Amino acid sequence: MFALxxxxxxxxxxxxxxxxxxxxxxxxxxxxxxxxxxxxIETQEWSFQPGPRKVTMYVYYPDGKLENVKADTGLMLNLxxxxxxxxxxxxxxxxxxxxxxxxxISVDYLQSGKWDxxxxxxxxxxxxxxxxxxxxxxxxxxxxxxxxxxxNTRRIMVSGGSGGGNVSLMCNKFAPRTFSCVVxxxxxxxxNDDIAYNEPEGSKLDARYxxxxxxxxxxxPGRQELHFVGNPAHLQKMKELGNEARIVVIHGTGDDIxxxxxxxxxxxxxxxxxxxxxxxxxxxxxxxxxxxxxxGHSLGDRTKMMLMYGRKYMNPESEHYYERSAQTDFDMKxxxxxxxxxxxxxxxxxxxxxxxxxxxxxxPE
Length: 365
What we know:
Helix content: 10-25%
Shape: globular
Oligomer: single chain
CATH class: Alpha Beta
């Protein structure tokens, strides 16, 4: 049974802020806005479009105001699906801030928006996308500290649906000491050959990679290894680094978009590595016409299912509520490396701001 760290009384006010009413702030805005808002932050350069890059992030406060952030308020990344923006295909931020007493952060990470309208690059699949999300999280984390606003640094959560589920899992991989709870709803567990190369009779997802080493769309072996969230060696590294997150995986047994067998493989490997993983694989007998309407990719009401299965670790009033004990990766400022067959991927936290790079293995003499 997961340990109960602390009992906190929380009130759940109703929120009436709508997404379309979000205040838009200028890109140069550094301090956190006083009310729910969207604004831009700088993030890591993308090789397909060299030069400075910014992403839009969205913040939602308890009852819509920064002044409602208290010492027991947590932070939560809420990540949209492949092809979406803001919180499309993820949880409703109004319900999350009210029900979990947290600041909800959504991000238009790299390649947000309609995929069929984007050309010239393969789908990022949680690489820079997770860096974008982590930078948004670190921005809020740093600015709260800078403003001397107390919040619960041990309550940092992440959840997403479909592509956002994949990015949530990759955030936990890239920041293995930061999250107290991760909820993945029908996310992509791996960049399999079917999705990478659009092979026939498989998932309809097409990440547009190439097997040609001379192509700019080439998928290197090590990069594909990194994108397997259930990579046994990488899971073991996460365990050694002290990953504490309570990971909840919700996936339909009939999902052929983000294939169900890939989710089973990932969950089994996480269990073998000793991570705190709990799965709910949706079967026909689970369909209730409300929370679960299908065993396929869409599943049903993702806000309700996330709260149904993740609340017990996220809600301070729950018997199984969990708080992380370690410092965050933003505070530790240590490099994290994942070895692959062709080198290593390093996630750096210099100055508490994440970035990722690849270092090839030395060529044999």
